[in-house]
Amino acid sequence: MNQALLNSLTEAERLLVAEAERDAVKSLDEDELLELHQRIRRARTKYVKNYRRAAGAAVAEAGGRGQSYPRNQRDRDKAELFETVLARVSREVAGAARQAATELRKERIAAARPAEREGRPTPAAHDSGPDGVRRRATKTTGGLKRDASSRAAGARRQAARDAR
Fold first, then answer.
1. pTM of the predicted model, to two decimals?
2. 3-state secondary structure of 134
3. pLDDT digits (tens, 9 = 90+) for 115-130
4. Please, which residues have CB within 8 angstroms of residue 37's CB and are 6 or more apart in sequence?
5. Of 46, 73, 71, 76, which is closest to residue 61 (Cα–Cα)?
6. What is the sign, positive or negative, of the torsion defined by CA atoms of 53, 57, 63, 67?
């Protein structure tokens, strides 16, 4: 980062940027990351707003946008710095959220497994014959043919409607 820009930051802003360094961010949990993300976003929004207001006011004084552009460099640089820091923290928040979602999913699956098996017979006991070997049904009820016939009839009705 530009040293002149870092020297122009206030102490609070310098601490905020330091909190968002890679090593410091790795030790934070999801809630702390979200709180840091919010504070950085507030700082970024502040400097974007300051830049836009000053740039809009300077256009009339300078006589054009191109001539007023260099006058507001500090706020523009601060907004860009906080945007970069915000992007870094956003990536960390996304990683922490993804990890938390994975852990919650594993917990829900683990909690559901014992309840899933309670009260239901095991598949081997349900489908097995007298010798304990699983048997498959050899007859069908014609459901597949009936379903296909019904779909075809529906397609014919739709085609007749479309032809009108």
1. 0.60
2. strand
3. 656 656 555 545 556 6
4. 86, 89, 90, 93
5. 71
6. negative
